[in-house]
Design a protein that fits this description.
Structural class: mainly alpha
Distance between the termini: 45 Å
Radius of gyration: 25 Å
Number of helices: 10
Order of helices and strands: HHHHHHEEHHHH
Oligomer: single chain
Number of strands: 2
Helix content: 55-70%
Largest sheet: 2 strands, antiparallel
Shape: elongated
Length: about 290
């Protein structure tokens, strides 16, 4: 039996699975095999560390390696990466589910703006616009850190698409275009170029509302429809959120179902090191699973 490094990589490729493809290599195409997970590891070596509980998996050494392989350390490192990913995928699932819930709430808030008419009072409309801006900013701040964290949503297409899509809707210059207005910016509601947060210039809005309330109300109604539709589309079946959550769910299930077999083949791997945020998201995932059982 050929136990060369090349053969090991080939054997790893034999357990190819489409369920992991969009997640183990999110920037690549639609196909992926676990051999890629071992790239960079196959020819590397590192010091050995002791592992507890090895006797639960027959065939592994006292330090959790499969010594029948010509390069057990590379295989062990690959399993370490799989162990880490199994935790990250659960954390990503929880964070993305929470983000999707926030998008749904923003969609409802935007729909309420559609009830504004030219006869609505300035104070009422100002209050509604400010409340929407505050809610959007709260959602944005809540996920800013996660969206830049590669362990959570930093490399997640759904999260990045949501941030871009909703921000673009607020900045869209065509809301109210038929009435001669260039988007919500003409009403004083725009995205700050530095903070990326929504802000309402009350003086500018008051001036526009006083001069052309019907046109301003139409612009707000246009925005209401556009933003709400965009938010709903993000969560539609087969679209960003649902597709990503489904992929994550399949990847989690695959790793859990094959954990023992993978460890018997490649070694135990080190347990994942959890940051505080990753631990929090993992706990949230467990709550989600408990709610479904």
């Amino acid at each position: 039996m050929d136990l060369s490094a090349k053969s090991i990589a080939g054997h790893i490729a034999s357990i190819k699975t489409d369920t992991l493809s969009p997640l183990l290599n999110p920037k690549a195409g639609s196909s992926f095999d676990i051999a890629q997970l071992a790239s960079g590891y196959i020819n590397s070596q590192s010091g050995l560390t002791g592992v507890a509980g090895v006797d639960t998996i027959p065939g592994l050494s006292a330090i959790g390696r499969n010594m029948t392989l010509s390069d057990p350390e590379s295989a062990y490192k690959m399993m370490t990466d799989i162990n880490r990913r199994s935790v990250e995928y659960k954390a990503q699932y929880a964070a993305l589910s929470d983000m999707q819930t926030g998008v749904g709430q923003l969609s409802q808030a935007a729909e309420q703006l559609g009830e504004i008419t030219a006869t609505s009072s300035f104070a009422t409309v100002k209050s509604q616009l400010q409340r929407f801006a505050d809610q959007y900013n709260s959602w944005r701040r809540e996920f800013d850190t996660d969206s830049q964290d590669p362990e959570l949503l930093g490399n997640t297409q759904a999260a990045q698409a949501a941030r871009h899509t909703l921000q673009a809707s607020i900045s869209n210059p065509f809301h109210g275009a038929n009435q001669g207005l260039q988007g919500l910016a003409a009403l004083g509601l725009e995205i700050d170029p530095v903070t990326q947060m929504a802000k309402l210039d009350v003086a500018k809005f008051e001036q526009t509302w006083a001069q052309q309330p019907a046109n301003a109300a139409t612009a707000i109604n246009d925005f209401s429809s556009h933003f709400s539709a965009a938010a709903k589309l993000l969560s539609a079946n087969g679209n960003f959120f649902q597709k990503q959550l489904s992929n994550l769910d399949r990847a989690i299930d695959y790793i859990q179902s094959n954990q023992s077999a993978l460890q018997a083949e490649f070694g135990l791997g080190d347990p994942p090191k959890l940051s505080n945020r990753l631990s929090q998201a993992l706990a949230e995932y467990q709550k989600i699973q408990t709610a479904f059982t």
